[in-house]
């Protein structure tokens, strides 16, 4: 029997019982669609996180004061106070050849007031390097000027949201605001940019790092952002940073360096595992569809007993009967999978309409895997009914009317 | 051509075993017209099924054209049924969702015949049985006589040597029954071996040889003419 004839015969048999066939296709389609949509959501989450990280800037290392032990162990009896990470440390790091830019950061919270309006916001003390490292863009004016970072000046840059809340639609350039006990002249406003790693860049005021240190009366830094010369230089930069700080801190390893790559690949792994487990849960609905296929095929076999007997009488070996019924299951699952894919694209389209900022993409491997699993389910659950049909005794099958 | 020796077929019924056939010795030569007769339950259909390789004897040897069929595999038996034997049943056994033409085409589909050849042979067979107007009709749109003629066309489409008919007129009125018998006899005139199970004595009389079964044993055989 030719393959084309097998397909044709099975397709005709399926269309002979249209309601039952449609229900089975629907079950299979829902199974396949849920696998694809959930995978797309997981993949979307991964892309989302990756995008967040790259909005932090490229080839970035983050230097934090204090050593974070990840190996466990009891905390020290007498609390070891980490040495401060100072502005001098940061400037010293900038002298390394593998380092392109360094942005020291001091963070604090202070009220920002203009005329009678006042808001408590995050104050970011940094240098002009922050602009390039965080890949910021200006809506108005300019960023902090270059110059000696150890010398403060009374200028500030406002986040987009903060500017709107205090100044409305007015241009704030050249206006003086009071931050804490000091007065600053506004020289620029940041363009709208989404959140990045939990810090809303719209709701900050950025001042020169030395001014911020004076404002908060501190000599330590919150962290130092270091931009390496390139992807290959990241590991080297990490080593150099640790060495430099150790030398400056009398042999103590009291900073932690986080590379963006390490963070990213950790998140990547976590999210991939999440995607796969979610897809696995969705695969349960596929197996439900498989059981439905098995049930319905069993009914079909008992309804078509005489047909099987006849096929045997006119010269079909039992292997052929097996193949015919397996082909029916396979066709059912493939058509189901095709509808499932359509359903999935409809679903992801609806999600992307509802949440435009969340990137929902259907990965190609998910499509292939869904079709493959659907086919596999159809065949596995089709074996039992097909075997039953193949084992029918032709004489008994034909003795029924 | 057909040689049965010491054929025995046993069915377990409840706790007991029933001898559907016992010690059947029987030879049919090519081109014979044999009527198998006897009361119901005498083993007529079982004999026909064994000859048609749908059933296997529990004991004895059945050789078809010198070939010991009891030693054939399932595939080989299917191939013999496909190429050498045509079945005609009392209840026609047409597949309800397929048209008359598709039902007739089925044995050739199983045999893997080329589609173009299939079409022309189906057309030829159906028109020779006066069914060319009914090709696209499904079985439930055909009369009993027409259905049996479609079934005969299906049984003969592979040009078998033997046609086995199990009560072919049992479900037909007299006139369409006679028509069907005439078609079958016409096949026999063209050299096909025809074996027909019937309990209608009038039909039996038409056959050149009559074999009578009682309780699974041959009680009378008019022998070859």
Explain what the structure shows.
The complex is a heterodimer of chains A (401) and B (225). Chain A has helices spanning 3-16, 18-54, 87-93, 129-133, 160-167, 209-216, 233-248, 260-303, 305-313, 318-354, 364-391, 394-399, and strands at residues 60-65, 99-114, 117-126, 138-141, 155-158, 176-179, 182-190, 204-208, 223-228, 255-259. With 401 residues, chain A is of the alpha+beta class. Chain A folds into 2 domains: 3-52 and 265-399, no CATH class; 103-226, no CATH class. Chain A has a 6-stranded mixed β-barrel. In chain A, helix 8 packs parallel to helix 11 (364-391). The longest helix of chain A has 44 residues, at 260-303. Chain A starts with a helix and ends with a helix. Chain B has helices spanning 44-51, 74-84, 100-111, 115-128, 144-156, 174-189, 201-206, and strands at 2-13, 16-28, 33-37, 59-64, 67-68, 85-88, 162-166, 193-197, 209-214, 217-221. Chain B has 7 helices and 10 strands. Chain B has 225 residues and is an alpha/beta fold. The A-B interface holds A 1-2, 5, 9, 12-13, 16, 306-307, 309-320, 394-395, 398, 401 and B 46, 49, 52, 54-55, 74-75, 77-79, 81-83, 87, 89, 91, 93, 95-98, 106-107, 109-112, 154-155, 158.
Keywords, separated by commas or semicolons:
heterodimer; A: 401 residues; alpha+beta; six-stranded mixed beta barrel; 55% helix; 17% strand; B: 225 residues; alpha/beta; Rossmann fold; six-stranded mixed β-sheet; four-stranded antiparallel β-sheet; 7 helices; 10 strands; 36% helix
Order of helices and strands of chain A: HHEHEEHEEHEEEHEHEHHHHH
- Overall 3D shape of chain B: globular
> Helical proportion of chain A?
40-55%
For the termini of chain A, the CA-CA separation is: 27 Å
What is the domain total for the residues of chain A? 2
Using only CA atoms, what is the Rg of chain B?
A: 17 Å
Q: Count every beta strand of chain A, where a strand is a DSSP E run of 2 or more residues.
A: 10
Strand order of the largest sheet of chain B: 6-7-8-3-9-10
CATH-derived topology of chain B: Rossmann fold
CATH architecture field of chain B: 3-Layer(aba) Sandwich
Strand order of the largest sheet of chain A: 2-3-8-5-7-6
